[in-house]
Specification:
- By secondary structure, the chain is of the alpha/beta class.
- The strands form 4 sheets. Strands 2, 5, 6, 7, 8, 9, 10 and 13 form an 8-stranded mixed beta sheet that branches. Strands 1, 14, 15, 16 and 17 form a 5-stranded mixed beta sheet that branches.
- A hairpin with a 2-residue loop joins strand 11 and strand 12.
- Helix 1 packs across helix 7.
- The longest helix has 21 residues.
Length: about 375
């Protein structure tokens, strides 16, 4: 069911609308094409942090290996190449997003755990996908009321299989096939693995489940898991923060960069969940819906296919902005918005207007003022 981000009383809506126009007229709003805009000067003296995200592709019992299968809609690149484009290579990748939102201080590289030296492999779990899905006539082995138990069982399932794989010699590799030492997974030297991402292919319709405000085993989410230990040159590392997310490799979720042959998938969920790795919270109301912040941040209702920035307050909280990076406005200024264009797999242009995001910001502020 589609949620209405601005479900308010009529009186509040009218007052908010008046405030929106009042705030807009205080600012001279223009836009520029992204190709015409100048490079933004970066004011930072921070040291760049090289951080590795350990991606663990999994497959459920009864499912075939999929990482090396070719994806027809992408000129036959493989699933693992499509994943790597989305995380590392594309200009719209998770890596480039966090490079920008961190004020150029974070170099986030995603590497892959594989049990095979010559090709990429996923970790096979002990149970089927249906076991971790709701029980239906088509899926008799699913859960009824014990979904939290099944979620914890899924965590134990992949944790045990990953620990077994590591103990048996599984290696970390980048897309070029180069081995990456496990010690690289602890960039801040606190004894914990910085980031783990569990990936799996989209769930078939008969296993699908909708969000109901509770915990769903196959839903994208983030939490803590200390069940995995890895011996490295730095000493023993323990798993900590991890997120799991489906790989949206279905045709409608695949996009192509304009002017290049780089394909990537819808990454709004991947970017949102990665934000939790850095301690950022969901910008939702107590009801579990994204009201009233809505599109204010990727940690609220993330846009697609070009994900909006996080708020300055969030970036400040993580340490990516401080007083040296923010210059208070002393007078009225012109605000220029960038228009970003992107092609989907059918060659259609998508226009991402930051103007609409700002209007959403102003609306959110207006609603907040009313509620106060």
């Amino acid at each position: 069911m589609k949620r209405n981000c601005f479900k308010k009383t009529n009186l509040k809506r009218y007052i908010a609308l008046i405030l929106v126009f009042a705030l807009m007229f205080q600012t001279d709003i223009k836009y520029t094409n992204a190709n015409e805009s100048q490079e933004t000067q970066v004011h930072t003296a921070y040291k760049v942090r090289d951080m590795y995200n350990m991606a663990i592709p999994i497959r459920f019992d009864g499912e075939d290996e999929y990482l090396n299968e070719k994806v027809t809609e992408t000129n036959d690149i493989t699933n693992i190449e499509l994943i790597d484009n989305t995380y590392n290579k594309s200009e719209y990748s998770v890596r480039e997003y966090y490079r920008a939102v961190s004020n150029q201080t974070l170099n986030l590289r995603t590497v892959y755990l594989s049990e095979n030296d010559n090709k990429f492999t996923s970790i096979k779990l002990a149970h089927t996908r249906g076991y971790y899905s709701p029980k239906t006539d088509e899926n008799p082995e699913g859960y009824t009321t014990d979904k939290e138990y099944r979620r914890l069982e899924l965590l134990r399932d992949w944790s045990n299989k990953v620990q077994e794989a590591v103990d048996n010699g599984a290696k970390l590799k980048n897309m070029a096939g180069e081995e990456i030492g496990f010690d690289k997974l602890d960039s801040d030297n606190d004894g914990y693995i910085d980031a783990i991402t569990v990936l799996f292919t989209p769930t078939d319709a008969k296993y699908a489940s909708s969000w109901d405000g509770g915990t769903i085993p196959l839903w994208a989410y983030h939490t803590i898991n200390n069940r995995i230990t890895i011996k490295t040159a730095k000493g023993t590392l323990t798993s900590n923060r991890y997120n799991q997310a489906p790989i949206q490799n279905d045709p409608v979720s695949i996009y192509k960069e304009a002017g290049s042959d780089i394909y990537f998938v819808n990454n709004k969920t991947l970017i949102h969940e990665m934000g939790h790795i850095f301690g950022l919270l969901d910008l939702y109301t107590a009801s579990g819906k994204s009201e009233p912040v809505c599109f204010m941040s990727a940690m609220a209702k993330a846009l697609s296919p070009v994900v909006q920035f996080m708020t300055s307050r969030e970036r400040e909280a993580v340490g990516w902005l401080d007083a040296d990076n923010i210059t208070p406005l002393q007078r009225q200024v012109n605000i220029h918005f960038r228009r970003q264009r992107i092609k989907d797999r059918m060659g259609r242009w998508h226009i991402h207007w930051n103007f609409l995001i700002i209007i959403n910001y102003i609306w959110s502020i207006a609603m907040w003022m009313i509620e106060k």
